Amino acid sequence: MAAEQESDRFQTSVDYVKTPVCNVCDTSGLKITQVNQKTTVWPRSLARTWTLMLLLVTCLLYWSRMAMPICAVTMAKEFGWSKSETGIVLGAFFWGYCFTQVLGGHASDRIGGERVLLLSTSSWAVMTAITPLLANIGLRPLVTMTATRFLLGVMQGVHYPSLVSICAQRVTEGERGLLMSTLACGCYLGMMLVGGVGSLMLDWFGWGSVFYGAGLLGVCWTFCVWKYLLQGPSLSLDSLWISSSSTSESSKVNWLNLLREPSVWAMIIAHLCFSSTYYTLMSWLPTFFKDMFPYAKDWVFNVIPWFVALPTSLFGGSISDHLVRQGCGTATVRKLMQFFAMGVASVFIFLLCKTDNFIHAVACVSVAVGLSTFNNSGVSVNVHDQAPSCAGALFGVMNTCSAFTGLLLVYMSGYMIEVTGSWVNVFSVLAAVNVIGVTVFIALGEAKRVDQPQIISTSC
Predict the structure, then answer these.
(1) pLDDT of 292-342, one tens digit each?
(2) Cβ atoms within 10 A of the Cβ of 48, count?
(3) Cβ–Cβ contacts within 10 Å for residue 386, how many?
(4) 45-246 — its CATH code?
(5) What is the pLDDT of residues 30-66, one digit of tens each?
(6) Boundaries of CATH 1.20.1250.20 in the chain?
(7) Whole-angstrom Cα distance, residue 382 to residue 330?
(8) Which class in CATH covers the domain with range 248-454?
(9) How far apart are CA 442 and CA 108, in angstroms?
(10) CB atoms within 10 A of CB 301
């Protein structure tokens, strides 16, 4: 019987790769189990559980992030903020968001993205829940809300680098596209949730309830993950110290050699172009519809594109993983997904400014947003292909740069709209940026591993 059980465990080693351990003693003489920092792939049942939990926390993250924009008008009236002061409060998030991307990714590569995500979620959940209280502590609400918004960006900045690191460490190549596409649905669900439920809570219970709801649900998520998924030796102080101080693959990466690779720069450029275009499109679409179709219902163009994004994101992830498992070249699959996400989507972005029919405009936006979700199984997964040992840190670098370039393109688009009064120039620039990014990626992109980590000895 024992032999049969051992055979069964060996048969499932494809799903779960166990890491070798060695015992060391600390200065107090206590015995500590040290775990090498090698990739440990989740078994399928655990992968499904984590996928659900990561989807939920991404949804709650966007509820927390969008709570302030949803309540901005009501809060501005209550506290007497001008348009520029409201803009200062809202914009503070993105400046904080840039600060922890690389740090969060590096920490996730070193000690595990699950731990970093748990710490991050607990911190931004508490910050969100106490936001209404901080608005009335005696200081000027403009100061406290700006500082709160900045700190929220700092705390949430590690979220996506942690997800990328988790995907690289815990999921096999043929399943990464679907995982990242599924987790991206959390963004779309969060946008719809805060837009629907959040708006009702704002009307019925006041703006504070929107923050309390997101914060308390985030705390509940943290408790559930700690209690049922991470409790035990993996969260002890001893194991955290050993994991963070031990030599890992990510610490052996030669970043100078990594950044000399044309394929890495092709991935970075494509990510910058895509993210900048996406940020700008999402920032100015409500204004575009208000200018062009002033009598249209807001919920139509604020909700329909996100409903379209849900199935297209899952379809893109499923088809990309299917193609990889069928033997198609991984680089070819990544380029194909990115071609639809940036190249084909640009056609519909450009057509958006050529129609004066509301239904046609909503259709163009919905198709463009739907196709853009293919990026989740394109460039977003390519970082796992090329640098799995430092995927979190590298994605943090990419996301930090794209946040700055995105803000720049948003401001430039606003300037063009104000000076020319035409949306044609704005959408033409966005389409051109997308075409440049996807052209570089198709020409120079690869899916081979280029981080070349050194082999770490497993002996004590």
Answers:
(1) 888 877 667 767 888 888 899 989 989 998 998 898 999 999 999 999 999
(2) 11
(3) 24
(4) 1.20.1250.20
(5) 332 333 344 577 787 888 889 899 999 999 999 998 8
(6) 45-246, 248-454
(7) 9
(8) mainly alpha
(9) 29
(10) 20
